[in-house]
Design brief:
single chain; mainly alpha; 3-stranded mixed beta sheet; 4 helices; rod-shaped
Length: about 120
Protein backbone atom coordinates (compact mmCIF):
# COMPACT_ATOMS: atom_id res chain seq x y z
CA UNK A 1 0.00 0.00 0.00
CA UNK A 2 2.76 2.42 0.95
CA UNK A 3 4.61 1.52 -2.25
CA UNK A 4 1.52 2.31 -4.34
CA UNK A 5 1.25 5.76 -2.75
CA UNK A 6 4.90 6.52 -3.48
CA UNK A 7 4.41 5.30 -7.06
CA UNK A 8 1.36 7.47 -7.40
CA UNK A 9 3.29 10.48 -6.09
CA UNK A 10 6.08 9.73 -8.57
CA UNK A 11 3.57 9.54 -11.41
CA UNK A 12 1.82 12.76 -10.43
CA UNK A 13 5.10 14.61 -10.06
CA UNK A 14 6.40 13.24 -13.33
CA UNK A 15 9.38 11.64 -11.60
CA UNK A 16 9.47 8.44 -13.61
CA UNK A 17 12.80 7.27 -12.16
CA UNK A 18 11.22 6.54 -8.77
CA UNK A 19 8.57 4.17 -10.10
CA UNK A 20 8.42 0.62 -8.76
CA UNK A 21 6.02 -2.09 -9.93
CA UNK A 22 3.82 0.35 -11.78
CA UNK A 23 1.27 -1.00 -14.20
CA UNK A 24 0.37 0.67 -17.46
CA UNK A 25 -3.17 1.25 -16.22
CA UNK A 26 -1.85 3.18 -13.20
CA UNK A 27 0.12 5.44 -15.48
CA UNK A 28 -2.80 5.92 -17.85
CA UNK A 29 -5.19 6.63 -14.98
CA UNK A 30 -2.82 9.14 -13.44
CA UNK A 31 -2.14 10.92 -16.69
CA UNK A 32 -5.82 10.95 -17.58
CA UNK A 33 -6.58 12.57 -14.24
CA UNK A 34 -3.91 15.24 -14.78
CA UNK A 35 -5.12 15.90 -18.32
CA UNK A 36 -8.74 16.25 -17.19
CA UNK A 37 -7.75 18.65 -14.41
CA UNK A 38 -5.74 20.77 -16.85
CA UNK A 39 -8.57 20.63 -19.39
CA UNK A 40 -11.03 21.89 -16.76
CA UNK A 41 -8.68 24.77 -15.89
CA UNK A 42 -8.30 25.73 -19.54
CA UNK A 43 -12.05 25.59 -20.19
CA UNK A 44 -12.70 27.71 -17.09
CA UNK A 45 -10.20 30.34 -18.22
CA UNK A 46 -11.64 30.35 -21.76
CA UNK A 47 -15.16 30.79 -20.40
CA UNK A 48 -14.01 33.60 -18.14
CA UNK A 49 -12.28 35.35 -21.04
CA UNK A 50 -15.33 34.86 -23.25
CA UNK A 51 -17.56 36.54 -20.67
CA UNK A 52 -15.39 39.64 -20.88
CA UNK A 53 -15.14 39.60 -24.67
CA UNK A 54 -18.77 38.89 -25.40
CA UNK A 55 -20.47 41.91 -26.80
CA UNK A 56 -23.45 43.60 -25.29
CA UNK A 57 -26.97 42.95 -26.42
CA UNK A 58 -28.76 44.24 -29.47
CA UNK A 59 -32.53 43.88 -29.33
CA UNK A 60 -32.17 41.51 -26.37
CA UNK A 61 -29.66 39.11 -27.98
CA UNK A 62 -25.92 38.97 -27.44
CA UNK A 63 -24.08 40.47 -30.38
CA UNK A 64 -20.29 40.60 -30.67
CA UNK A 65 -20.43 43.83 -32.65
CA UNK A 66 -21.73 45.66 -29.58
CA UNK A 67 -18.36 46.62 -28.14
CA UNK A 68 -19.34 48.40 -24.95
CA UNK A 69 -21.02 45.36 -23.36
CA UNK A 70 -24.29 47.20 -22.73
CA UNK A 71 -27.83 46.51 -23.94
CA UNK A 72 -29.06 48.53 -26.93
CA UNK A 73 -32.48 48.79 -28.56
CA UNK A 74 -34.46 46.57 -26.18
CA UNK A 75 -37.60 45.19 -27.82
CA UNK A 76 -39.61 43.74 -24.96
CA UNK A 77 -42.92 44.67 -26.61
CA UNK A 78 -44.22 45.98 -29.95
CA UNK A 79 -43.92 49.63 -28.89
CA UNK A 80 -40.25 49.11 -28.07
CA UNK A 81 -39.83 47.38 -31.42
CA UNK A 82 -41.29 50.37 -33.27
CA UNK A 83 -39.14 52.71 -31.18
CA UNK A 84 -35.99 50.70 -31.99
CA UNK A 85 -36.75 50.92 -35.71
CA UNK A 86 -37.19 54.68 -35.45
CA UNK A 87 -34.13 55.31 -33.27
CA UNK A 88 -31.67 53.14 -35.18
CA UNK A 89 -31.92 55.43 -38.18
CA UNK A 90 -31.49 58.68 -36.24
CA UNK A 91 -27.74 58.58 -35.69
CA UNK A 92 -25.15 58.50 -38.45
CA UNK A 93 -22.70 56.28 -36.51
CA UNK A 94 -23.03 54.59 -33.13
CA UNK A 95 -19.67 54.52 -31.33
CA UNK A 96 -20.62 51.30 -29.50
CA UNK A 97 -21.22 49.40 -32.76
CA UNK A 98 -18.30 47.70 -34.51
CA UNK A 99 -19.76 47.71 -37.99
CA UNK A 100 -21.46 49.88 -40.55
CA UNK A 101 -24.70 51.74 -39.98
CA UNK A 102 -26.34 49.57 -42.64
CA UNK A 103 -25.37 46.42 -40.73
CA UNK A 104 -26.84 47.85 -37.53
CA UNK A 105 -30.08 48.89 -39.21
CA UNK A 106 -30.37 45.46 -40.84
CA UNK A 107 -29.73 43.68 -37.53
CA UNK A 108 -32.37 45.73 -35.69
CA UNK A 109 -34.93 45.28 -38.49
CA UNK A 110 -34.28 41.54 -38.56
CA UNK A 111 -34.68 41.22 -34.77
CA UNK A 112 -37.88 43.30 -34.71
CA UNK A 113 -39.36 41.38 -37.64
CA UNK A 114 -38.51 38.04 -36.00
CA UNK A 115 -40.11 39.00 -32.69
CA UNK A 116 -43.00 41.10 -34.01
CA UNK A 117 -43.91 39.99 -37.55
CA UNK A 118 -47.05 42.16 -37.46
CA UNK A 119 -44.94 45.35 -37.46
CA UNK A 120 -44.54 46.57 -41.00
CA UNK A 121 -40.93 47.72 -40.88
CA UNK A 122 -41.12 49.51 -44.21
CA UNK A 123 -43.70 51.96 -42.85
CA UNK A 124 -41.61 52.85 -39.79
Amino acid sequence: MKENKSNLRAILSGNWAQLKDVTDSMIVDSLTKRINEKKAQIIASINEAAEHKTGGTLCGKVNRKVIDGKPHFPISDADHGRNALARVAQTAKHDWWDGTKEELVAAVKKAVKAKFPSIDKDKE
